[in-house]
């Protein structure tokens, strides 16, 4: 892993006992996150604040992967649980929080903005994958906010900015497309979600109200391929 700043490349090193590392995100303060191997052969997410790589641990399993960090130092990624499945996580005050799934066995967080909104994707109870938004303790399937007949299936969300715009990949009328979703959080009282196609080519979406409480489906017990 390395950090490039002021025209220079700085090597960040490896975790104790490891010989490989990769950096995936850096915040405005220069804090870096990523993951690397350890002496045992496991992969562990790390953060770097100027001196050394610090392991962020797991959710009870062997491996973890840190994928993004916001300016408050909140880290997101995915980590294995005691069952061996990978679950999306977010750190709060240094502690790792399991964000759960959309009814399947595994989930993966890839982006977090400075408001603490987390995006990624999860397996579902039928074995598919759907993009999610995590906010205020709830993982919401972005597809649950699409109107009937939109032609979209949002598969993975990879990033979210401070304007609450989400990017990822999905299927539009059966063809794979990149998308950008604009979250409208101006309404003080969440209502059933509305999604309006607003750009040529079918890749720019606007979600009206996006927070909707819902129950989790039963867990899918099929194994998900490792990262």
Can you walk me through this structure?
- With 227 residues, this protein is mainly beta.
- It has no helices and 19 strands.
- A 5-stranded mixed beta sheet has the order 15-16-17-19-18, with no helix packed on it. A 4-stranded antiparallel beta sheet has the order 3-4-5-6, with no helix packed on it.
- A hairpin with a 4-residue loop joins strand 12 (118-124) and strand 13.
- The radius of gyration is 18 Å and the shape is globular.
- The relative contact order is 0.12.
Strand line-up across the major sheet: 15-16-17-19-18
| SS content category | mainly beta
Uncertain runs are 186-203, 208-227
Share of helical residues: under 10%
Order of helices and strands: EEEEEEEEEEEEEEEEEEE
Distance between the termini: 19 Å
Major sheet = 5 strands, mixed
Oligomer type: single chain
- How many individual β-strands? 19
Radius of gyration: 18 Å
**Count of discrete alpha- or pi-helical segments spanning 4 or more residues:** 0
Strand content: over 45%
pLDDT averaged residue by residue: 84
Furnish the topology, listing elements before pairings:
Elements: E1 2-5, E2 8-11, E3 21-26, E4 32-37, E5 43-48, E6 53-55, E7 60-69, E8 75-81, E9 86-92, E10 95-98, E11 103-112, E12 118-124, E13 129-135, E14 138-141, E15 152-160, E16 165-172, E17 175-183, E18 195-197, E19 204-207
Parallel strand pairs: 17-19
Antiparallel strand pairs: 1-2, 3-4, 4-5, 5-6, 7-8, 8-9, 9-10, 11-12, 12-13, 13-14, 15-16, 16-17, 18-19
């Amino acid at each position: 892993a390395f950090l490039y700043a002021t025209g220079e490349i700085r090597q960040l090193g490896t975790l104790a006992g490891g010989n490989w590392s990769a950096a995936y995100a850096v915040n405005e303060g220069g804090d870096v996150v990523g993951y690397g191997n350890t002496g045992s052969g496991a992969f562990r997410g790390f953060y770097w604040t100027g001196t050394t790589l610090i392991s962020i641990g797991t959710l009870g399993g062997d491996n973890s992967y840190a994928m993004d960090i916001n300016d408050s130092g909140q880290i997101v990624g995915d980590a294995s649980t005691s069952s061996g499945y990978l679950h999306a996580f977010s750190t709060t005050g240094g502690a790792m929080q399991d964000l759960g799934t959309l009814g399947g066995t595994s989930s993966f967080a890839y982006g977090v903005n400075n408001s603490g909104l987390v995006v990624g994707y999860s397996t579902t109870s039928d074995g598919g994958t759907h993009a999610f938004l995590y906010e205020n303790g709830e993982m919401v399937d972005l597809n649950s906010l699409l109107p009937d007949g939109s032609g979209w299936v949002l598969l993975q969300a990879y990033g979210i900015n401070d304007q609450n715009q989400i990017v990822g990949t999905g299927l539009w009328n059966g063809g794979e497309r990149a998308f950008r979703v604009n979250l409208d959080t101006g309404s003080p009282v969440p209502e059933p979600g509305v999604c309006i196609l607003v750009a040529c080519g079918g890749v720019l979406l606007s979600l009206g109200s996006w927070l909707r409480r819902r129950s989790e489906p039963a867990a899918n017990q099929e194994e998900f391929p490792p990262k």
